């Protein structure tokens, strides 16, 4: 009798163990009792393609972020087209791109159409000249007078007797829009050369004695010289402190809020906010946005 009871108890215990492991009715048994794992904030298993289009002034920035992001998220591909700020915003609103890169703020009609801007970095616009130019700096008034044609010779700005060759960006460029807006000279400039990219502006200034131009602060190399404005150079400290007046936010634009975008795009914006993303922004010579003192979060 005791032996029979022992066998029955063994069978019962075995049956209970079987149910715990395999469950009843095809369930996951004991494993179904465990709490589901919370989703990772950085889901490296996310897949997809991200298309960015827009500002040529953001070439170094978008290139660095795309490269770093694809290394961290190997299942997501990022392509970048440099079509100009306005064209990039149009591409987003037309559904041809996921993210529009813009070196100007959104206009009201773009906001009304559903475009949402995300400040990704802060840029200074560097005023550059040919290395042979003896002038070290200009006042904001002198700069405005040069671009509106009131000053036509470097001698009038303390330099040699040499004609000034005014170089700038083409109409529709975000860099040009911000430059002219800050100096309050929209549609008043007299350009000798209007170039279709920041790189082209630098190349023309580097090859033309007497030339002056403007580009994003991460563009210039030793083929040109940066001019001080009101005694200030576009350093990180001067831009963050507001001392250098030719500065602007660099924007990434989406059609609607980030939360409405694809998983790949949401991961990309999370990456921008990460420590690695901020380090990449600074590595290309730009300034990371300040923290929102009220929300305690970085402004993006």
What does this structure look like?
The protein is α/β, with parallel strands linked by helices and 300 residues long. It has two domains: 48-122 and 248-290, Periplasmic binding protein-like II (D-Maltodextrin-Binding Protein, domain 2, 3-Layer(aba) Sandwich), CATH 3.40.190; 124-247, D-Maltodextrin-Binding Protein, domain 2, CATH 3.40.190. The protein has ten helices and 13 strands. Strands 1, 2, 3, 4, 6, 7, 8, 9 and 11 form a nine-stranded mixed sheet that branches. Strand 1 (48-54), helix 2 (59-72) and strand 2 (76-82) form a beta-alpha-beta unit. Helix 2 (59-72) packs antiparallel against helix 10. The relative contact order is 0.18. The model is unreliable at 1-7, 9-41 and 291-299 (pLDDT under 50).
